[in-house]
Every structure is written in C-alpha cells, then in structure tokens.
Amino acid sequence: MLATRVAWPYDPSHMDDLGAELDWTALLAMQPALGCIPHALRSSARQVKAEAGQVLFRVGDPVRQVFLVVAGEARLFRFSSNGTEVVLQRARGGFFAEASLDSRRYHCEAVASVASTLWAFPATLFRQRLEESAAFRRAWQSLLAQEIRRLRAQCERLSLNGAADRVIHYIECEGIDGEVMLHQSRKSWAAELGLSHEALYRTLRNMQHGGILHVNGARLALRQ
Amino acid sequence: MLATRVAWPYDPSHMDDLGAELDWTALLAMQPALGCIPHALRSSARQVKAEAGQVLFRVGDPVRQVFLVVAGEARLFRFSSNGTEVVLQRARGGFFAEASLDSRRYHCEAVASVASTLWAFPATLFRQRLEESAAFRRAWQSLLAQEIRRLRAQCERLSLNGAADRVIHYIECEGIDGEVMLHQSRKSWAAELGLSHEALYRTLRNMQHGGILHVNGARLALRQ
DNA sequence: CGTACTTTTGAATCGCATCAAATCTGGTGG
DNA sequence: CCACCAGATTTGATGCGATTCAAAAGTACG
After folding, report:
1. How far apart are CA B20 and CA B46, in angstroms?
2. Chain D nucleotides with an atom closer than 7 Å to a protein C-beta
3. Are the beta carbons of A116 and B116 closer than 8 angstroms?
4. Mean pLDDT in residue range A8-36
5. Which of A87, A89, B49, B127 could cross-link B152 (Cys pair, CB 3.0–4.6 Å)?
6. What pTM does this model have?
C-alpha cells in the first residue's frame, strides 16, 4: 500500500550548490521579529532555491536545518496508514521545522509545493546559540510565544462559520485599531482564512456595499 | 461605545480563599507533559474554582499568574472597536496565558465560560525557575514546540472542507497508527473540530456504515 | 506582446448549520 | 429505590452559504 510520493529525487546535495547572497535587510523589513537572531547565526544561513515538488527533508532524517520561508510555500505532511498525505503545516512566510530543534530527527516530510526561496539555518549552531546567549534565548522564547498566540487566534478564526466573521476576526487580531495592511495576495489570504478565493472576493464586496468595510488597495478598515 | 461586559464583579481576591488540596498525580496521568514542571513550582500552584462567567484577568492587568485548565473552559478574548468580543482562545484542558510569561501585562481578557477548575502558577516563580534550571527550560521549550506543532496541525484540520476529512485528520494526527482514544465528550470534540455536534454524529455514523471507521466507546479506529 | 497569475462575476450544487424533538445517560436528593 | 434533572446523544427536516465549475477581465513580468 504505497503512497503517491512526489516525483522529485531526494538529493540533499541539491541544496548546497546555490550560494546566492542573502538580502537580510529586505527580509527584516517584512518580519521585524527576525531581528532577534544573532549575527553569527544569521550569517551562517544558506539561501535555498527549491523547485516545485522538491523534497526538503523526509521522516527520520536527522535534524540538520531549521528553515525560513522567504517566498513560495513549503508543505509539511505525514503519510497516513492508507497512503494519503496528511498536511501538518503549509508554511508561507515564516519558520518551519523550528519546533524540531529539540528533536534528533524530523517527524514529517517537507516539500516545496511551489518554486520557493528558503533560508536554511544550521540546527547545531542554532541550539548552541540558544544555550550560550540568554538574550537570544529570551527573544526566541518570545517569538515562540507570539507564534502560539497567533496560531490560537487563527484556530478560533477558522472555527467561525461565516466568511465575513473570519475577515472581521482577522482584521481585529492582525491589524491595529480595526485596520490592517495586507502583505499578501487576496488569493493566498483566502487560503489562510480557510475560504475559496471566490468566496472571499464576494464577501469583501458585500462588506463594502454594507458599509462594514472600507477597502483601499491593500489597506482594509472596518467601519463603526 | 461600551461593550456588553460580563456581569461578574472583578475581584481577584475571590481566587485566594479556595485552598483545596491539589491532585497532581491524577492530572499528570491525563497530561504526561506536565511532568517537566519542577516540584517547587508545582507545589506553589493554587487551585482555583471559578464559577461560570467569573473574570480571571483583564487587559492591562499585570501578569501574576499562568493558568492550567483542569476542568471546564476559559475563554480569552479582546473587545473589538465596535464592542463585540473577539475570541482568541477557548482553553480546555491545557495551559493558557503561558505565552504571557514574557509580558508585563495581559493582552486580553480571560473569563471562565462555565464552572471550571484551574491551577494558577505564580508567574514570577515560573520565570525564575526557567532562568535557573536548564533542564526545566529545555522541557518547557519542548512543551512550547509541541504546542506549536499541535496548533499548526489543528489549523490545517480546520481548513479542510469535509467533516469526515477533519475526523480522519484528527485521528491520524492525535492518535497512533490510525487509532485514537477520545478523552472528551463528542460534543466538545465537535467544537474542537469546528463542527456542530449534529454534523459530527452524522459523520461518525456514515463513516461506520461506509466501513471507514470502527467505533468502540471512546476508541476510534480507521479501517484500511 | 505573450504568458501566467490574480481578480472578478455568474450559476448550480452540495454539505453543514440550524431548529426541533426524542432518547439516553449520569448524578442528586427525597 | 425511584423521581427528577441537566447534559449528552441521536435522528429528522429545512435553508443558507460556501464550494465548485466556468469564464472573462485585469495585471505583472520577461
């Protein structure tokens, strides 16, 4: 009962021959929280250009790297008993496998679902820095705590029935004072909200007509 | 533009006059991960019996306690600009406000939505132990990492369209080898899956008739 | 200028939420 | 022990809203 595995050959050495320069400042502007990462660790990161379908790691592989999605999407999943994929995370614009820092081996598969740009931090150095630097440790713990809060809010959002309710919840949680600046396409926002993109477009239109929402490009503001 | 606040008077001293003995072993059996908590911290926890609607803390209150839900449910929320509640977390059977350890003040409101039993750990001692003990720190980080993995999987589960898909995803992720033991009522499980309890009952029935699922009390097993 | 992707609207279908009600369960007190 | 009650479980009927399929227009990029 073998599963339909991705066609890509699994060759970790693929990731080593792409040593493009890293644009840290641009990334930092998008994700200010990354500022907590020490310089030594930062400069040891390697940029990885992954093609669509490329395997990043497999179940049981020793944890050598922690990843950061700069562009594209990585999909983490396990194979269920009947061979189908059970998606654990669709990482887009953030860390993944960072919770594997305290594991010796990966507990799931990771594949770039589209052509993606990733940063790979060496796990050993990451652990070492966490042990050495109390400041980095505190910042990292703060990052983890922030991620937990964000995820819990997202779970609550996804358990709302109405599309409009999810939009409102998102703006209230991720924005400031009923106003938010979208940093992604509406299509991918729809995926984050657990909606089809058509449903999101229609909901936004109806909310505008109803006077609940004001849209100005990437800027969304709740009225009243 | 005042919101419809809960009727309960906010009196923190309510929580101090209930010093029932703590049943640590029973709790540990339910949540083995709690074993990482040092004895000194464990014994400093106070049991809190909260009535339905009782306020546990408010936005801006100094972070004095980290909570663990033993029975019942705590609801964390913020008031949106138009006064409605935006639920950030419905904590049932686990920690909450533990991500506030690195904050000086709570960033949301917390109310027991039903009559609940909680444990309150003093935040100061918690932070202190985390600084002192490297073992506890590692265990705690491991607990946070585990929570992140769990939440990400739950988000993926909630973004699945079909009720049966969510059930399968749950069993594959939370169970072992396509088999899981439910530690809660099906009604509350339905809430966790983002479904109405009727939809869950019907789905379970259909899955049994379809031969996909085998149900034996609290034991659910996927077939094939 | 062509290609790939996003944005937008339409129509039809289907599944889940909702309301309603009956049964079953565990626990409490007379 | 039984009456009683609150809550969970289970089934039915109905309506709405999101998904899906389809297609057109807009947009970015090489």
Report:
1. 8
2. 7-13, 17-22
3. no
4. 59
5. A89
6. 0.88
Rg over CA atoms, chain B: 19
C-alpha to C-alpha distance for A142 and B53, rounded to whole angstroms:
30
Per residue, the 3-state secondary structure of B12-41, as one string, reads HHHHCCCCCCCCHHHHHHHCHHHHHCCHHH
Q: How far is residue A73's CA from residue B145's CA, in Å, rounded to a whole number? A: 21
CA B49 from centre of chain: 16
CA(A20)–C1'(C9) in Å? 43
Residues sharing a CB contact under 8 Å with residue A34, sequence separation 6 or more, in sequence order = A27, A28, A68
Provide the pLDDT for residue A29. Answer: 65
Give the pLDDT of residue B219.
95
CA distances in angstroms from A120 to A23, A64, A161, A224, listed in the order given: 14, 9, 38, 44
Of A102, A158, A173, the CB nearest to B159: A158
Smallest CA–CA distance, residue B51 to chain A, in Å, is: 23
β partners of residue A216: A219
The helix (H) or strand (E) run that includes residue A156 is helix A134-158
B85 in Cβ contact with B54 (< 8 Å): no
Cα of B57 to nearest chain A Cα, Å: 17
> pLDDT tens-digit profile of B42-78?
889 998 888 888 999 999 999 999 999 988 889 999 9
B156 contacts in chain A (CB < 8 Å) = 87-90
CB burial string A120-154: b at 16+ within 10 A, e below: bbebeebeebbeeeeebbebbbbbbbebbbbbbbb
| Cβ contact B81–A222 (<8 Å) | yes
Is pLDDT above 50 for B96?
Answer: yes
Q: CB of A10 under 7 A from strand C?
A: no
- B/e letters for A175-199, b = 16+ CB within 10 Å, e = fewer, are beebebebeeeeebbbbbbbbeeee
Residue-level pLDDT at A76 = 95
Q: Could you give the 3-state DSSP secondary structure of residue A164?
A: helix
Ranges A200-209, B23-32, B85-94, most confident? A200-209
